[in-house]
Amino acid sequence: MPVIPTTYVATVGSQQVELPIVAVSPDLSIALMMVIDHGVRFVETAGEELAGHFAAARPEVVVAPATLGIPVAIAVTRALGLDDYVILQKTRKVHLGDALEAPVHAITSTSGQALLLDRARLGDVAGHRVLFVDDVISTGSSSGAALALLEEAGAEIVGVGALLAEGDGWPDALSAYEDRLFALGRIPLFPR
């Protein structure tokens, strides 16, 4: 049986981070990126580099999923010189009773969730050039659900970006966006 290391050094654009390797099932471990554990400068630099890649697409609004996509959205929004971003929620708060909804299952979650787009924010995405960003894209199922939700809301998706892309399954799941996909780095999966 192969020995799985305890950490993995990932390259994220011009930066390197050491990530712990954690089991997500009896058969699989991942290098866990928790963007909130890497500091403001790390996220700011990564956001600037991600924004630099997508600047020519002229996004009008940045959209990300809660929770770990929030710091990425803020950094990319600032770097693009924009002032607003939209977050797809995962917890149904009182104001989200009639939200647009898409079910999702992420590799790092233990149960199914849903992405929720507040109807009060529809005007911020409908008919606008949207850049979708996240910390890590793994299987592509969560990002695919988010993108379908945004298109249902009338968004024009001009880019799909992440700090890291994990494994090899995400390009197939997001093949409709292959000409607009970009990640600052790649990390492998670790079969157990």
Task: Please tell me about this protein's structure.
The chain is α/β, with parallel strands linked by helices and 192 residues long. It has a single domain (40-186), classed as 3-Layer(aba) Sandwich (Rossmann fold). It has five helices and twelve strands. It has helices at 39-54, 69-79, 122-125, 141-152, 170-173, and strands at 7-12, 15-25, 28-31, 61-65, 85-88, 100-104, 113-117, 129-137, 156-166, 181-183, 186-187, 189-191. Strands 4, 5, 8, 9, 10 and 11 form a six-stranded parallel beta sheet that branches. It has a four-stranded antiparallel beta sheet with strand order 1-2-3-12. Helix 1 crosses helix 2 (69-79). It starts with 6 loop residues before the first strand and ends with a strand. The mean pLDDT is 91.
Structural class, judged by helices and strands? alpha/beta
Q: Identify the CATH class.
A: Alpha Beta
CATH level 3 topology: Rossmann fold
| Terminus-to-terminus distance | 8 Å
Number of strands: 12
Concise summary:
By secondary structure, the protein is α/β, with parallel strands linked by helices.
Which helices and strands, and how do they pair?
Elements: E1 7-12, E2 15-25, E3 28-31, H1 39-54, E4 61-65, H2 69-79, E5 85-88, E6 100-104, E7 113-117, H3 122-125, E8 129-137, H4 141-152, E9 156-166, H5 170-173, E10 181-183, E11 186-187, E12 189-191
Helix pairs in contact: 1-2
